[in-house]
């Protein structure tokens, strides 16, 4: 057990310093029974760190099907991530839970391991009212030292309004927002919060605009494990060029990815947005073709049909993935 790396009143500064570059959110490998494949998880973490050279790790996210795991399984996932990272990159640990008490327990465990930030999502039950939502986040925030990054999506059936986010940003250790809504919503939040917190649009297709027009320095995403591999890292390269101020080079790299981006939209983003189903089976197969473990989906998650698998493999091979 280690002490938090900073105090809650230093969280906002820590976020501005550490949240930079591509922070990868990998899938969680499991066996046929849905149990954690520890060897596969270690392999994928090393792949993210050493092969595609992620600037950070985002663990127990949606691609990690955190909502299907027990609290002990979620703790183990973070423990292994901390071991494999060895302090080389920042780690964001998703500690979301409908119960504030359970979220606090997960967050304190992650804090004790030495992670850099925790992530929370909107509570699924009873949180849509502004006062209840504020109370949920405030209750958790005052019990921990680490900075909190909130993921704002409609997965809970509602989303945080920009005006409410501006109030939440005043809590000392709420330091970042991953805003999975449209650009207009993100821009309005930025107008209201200024530079008090880090605001991240996680959509890779928006990153060039967010970087060049709004100064976004980080992206939390699983996209790079689908775009980057051992042979080439085009997403990492254009992001790094942009962060270094080489905007023309970044733009060339960004637009060269359009064929993969179109496939990502068709296979990952559009089904997720239209059907509300996190496309874990698709992401697992795609990332497997780029060198990660892949493997079975948890029993509660729909698998791809043989026809869908074959079609995805063929379309990706035509784009140079897994050929």
From TrEMBL:
Keywords: Lyase. This is Dihydrodipicolinate synthase family protein. It comes from Jiangella ureilytica. InterPro entries: Aldolase_TIM, DapA-like. The keyword Iron does not apply. GO terms for molecular function: 4-hydroxy-tetrahydrodipicolinate synthase activity. Belongs to the DapA family.
């Amino acid at each position: 057990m280690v002490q938090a790396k900073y105090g809650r009143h230093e969280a906002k500064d820590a976020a501005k310093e550490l949240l930079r570059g591509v922070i990868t959110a990998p899938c969680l490998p499991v066996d046929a029974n849905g149990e954690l494949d520890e060897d596969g998880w270690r392999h994928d973490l090393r792949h993210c760190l050493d092969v595609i050279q992620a600037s950070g790790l985002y663990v127990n996210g949606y691609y990690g099907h955190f909502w299907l795991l027990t609290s002990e399984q979620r703790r183990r996932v973070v423990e292994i991530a901390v071991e494999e990272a060895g302090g080389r990159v920042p780690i964001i640990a998703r500690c979301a839970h409908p119960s504030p008490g359970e979220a606090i327990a997960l967050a304190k465990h992650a804090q004790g391991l030495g992670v850099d930030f925790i992530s929370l999502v909107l509570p699924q039950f009873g949180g849509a009212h502004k006062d209840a939502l504020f109370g949920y986040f405030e209750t958790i925030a005052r019990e921990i030292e680490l900075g909190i990054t909130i993921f704002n999506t409609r997965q809970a059936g509602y989303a945080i309004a920009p005006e409410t986010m501006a109030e939440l940003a005043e809590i000392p250790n709420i330091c970042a927002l991953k805003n999975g809504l449209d650009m207009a919503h993100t821009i309005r939040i930025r107008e209201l919060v200024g530079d008090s917190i880090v605001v991240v649009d996680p959509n890779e297709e928006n990153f060039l605009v967010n970087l060049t027009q709004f100064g976004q320095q980080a992206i939390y995403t699983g996209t790079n494990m689908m775009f980057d591999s051992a042979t080439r890292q085009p997403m990492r390269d254009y992001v790094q060029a942009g962060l270094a101020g080489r905007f023309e080079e970044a733009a060339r790299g960004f637009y060269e990815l359009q064929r993969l981006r179109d496939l990502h939209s068709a296979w990952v983003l559009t089904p997720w947005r239209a059907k509300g189903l996190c496309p874990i089976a698709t992401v697992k197969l795609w990332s497997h073709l780029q060198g990660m473990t892949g493997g079975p989906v948890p029993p509660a998650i729909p698998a791809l049909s043989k026809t869908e698998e074959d079609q995805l493999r063929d379309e990706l091979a035509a784009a140079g993935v897994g050929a």
